[in-house]
Amino acid sequence: MNALNIRDLRKVYKNGFEALKGVDITVQQGDFFALLGPNGAGKSTAIGIISSLVNKTSGHVEVFGHDLDNDPEGVKSCIGLVPQEFNFNMWEPIGEIVVNQAGFYGIPRKEAWRRAEASLRQLDLWDKRQQMSRTLSGGMKRRLMIARALVHRPKLLILDEPTAGVDIEIRRSMWEFMSELNRQGTTIILTTHYLEEAESLCRNIAIINQGRIVEHSRMDRLLHQLHTETFVLNLRDPLNELPSLQGFELKRLDGQRVEVAVNSEQSINQLFEQLSLHEIGVTSLRNKQNRLEQLFMNMVESARNGAAQ
Amino acid sequence: MTRYSRYLTAFQTIFTKELLRFTRIWLQTILPPVITTVLYYIIFGNLIGSRIGEMDGFSYIDFIVPGLILMAVITNSYSNVVSSFFSSKFQRHVEELIISPVPNWVILAGYVAGGVARGVMVGIAVTSVSLFFTDIQVQSYGWTLTVFILTAILFSLAGFINAVYANSFDDISIVPTFILTPLTYLGGVFYSISMLPEFWQQVSLANPILYMVNAFRYGLLGVSDIPMGVALGIVVLFIVALTGFSLYLLNRGIGIKN
């Protein structure tokens, strides 16, 4: 059974803006799925419709076999949502926020406290359960929203930019937490602007642009489409003059750093052979851009050019 | 866990949340109406009232007691729901409810129960204070309690509708200031409509609060300007209409969904 099935989903807002123009998405049960797109592409509208925050104009949404039109309660029972913006009561204690959310799902108070304790402990917030939510730091507020979304043990967890504005240490611990959740069987849909995050966590991906899905495939298959990767090389000694390498073109960034593009028919070994021939020592190298980011930019750019023509 | 036990838990959660919300800030929610009512008793009841004499066979202070109690119930049940639901929209935590499998009628019932609870608490507090100023004997506990609860339900519903349409904090104070307060003051709290010229008596009959005040006065004092059947019928009619309209708004997602 698929965790999510979306067919021909359309949304036209009252002001006439067409946010979704016939979107089809399938997410398999147990998947870690990335839904990417530039700002205003329609990601949040799609997530809003799936989680009942936005009314759709037309189309079909099914979550674990529950149809959104005929069985909205069934759909809602399966979903946990971590929205992009903070949406909890700033004047309520943290423990109560999580317990109340469980109550809305019909979980009696005693059991709700037991589950809230488990969720809050997992996210290092249990000690702060009596604190008002407004006193939390940005990272803690994000973790509170995750704890709240997990308290009814959803089969499908939707994370809309869960790590936005979070420092790198917390971000990495959140990645581990999400991976562990997924390993335990929770299907996860992730939207993020950190493409490194999507590349390392997700197995399948859909890219949405201007209300249309422009790519829907496996992450590894998509990355394989990347024909050229650009590397930044840190050199052992400064270069006075750029040498002419066979098959490669070096571009100077500064005295001791150059960048070079390697296409899918070439190898890094060939590059290093050429550099050795010219006695150029390399102390380290890195991708100039994350691979997914490069692909993403190519797709968005070509879609934009297509629209302009 | 059956569907209805889930609904009951969800209702209890919303109700408890509401109860905790206004009791936590009792200095802002419970105490002010009590102080206001004491001032009314001292000024209108004792100081001015003693010069007015009797009204419908009762001393003026006894005559205004039912209206003042009901006025506190109306204001508090209304403002509890309007401020709580609007605040949940403003801070966006209404989304917690929208994404949960809670039917709209349970959401409405939870908020209305919260409004009724505050109305009843304030009503009891104001009634207790009244005992220091008057010695009225309740004529019918059944009528008194029925009107008391129905009025709180009606104005909780009205507060809910106001909150759904409100887009700013100004919007939640416009209706109480420009509609609710004038209707309450002109609803026979401080006078019997039999004192008015015929034309204004007829105009007053268009004011729904008049029926509630009179029905409540009948329960406490045994006198009313309006037949009881008519008063009760009108209150129930309003409750049914506002419930239907509130559910329509929730089902369509007006004011809360994009």
TrEMBL record, chain B:
PROSITE patterns found in the cross-reference section: ABC_TM2
Primary location recorded for the protein, binned into one broad class: membrane
Residue intervals passing through the bilayer: 25-48, 60-79, 105-133, 145-166, 172-193, 230-250
Lineage of the organism: Bacteria, Pseudomonadati, Pseudomonadota, Gammaproteobacteria, Chromatiales
Coiled-coil intervals: none
Superkingdom of source: Bacteria
Protein name, entry field: Transport permease protein
Source species of the chain: Sedimenticola selenatireducens
Subcellular locations according to the entry: Cell inner membrane; Membrane
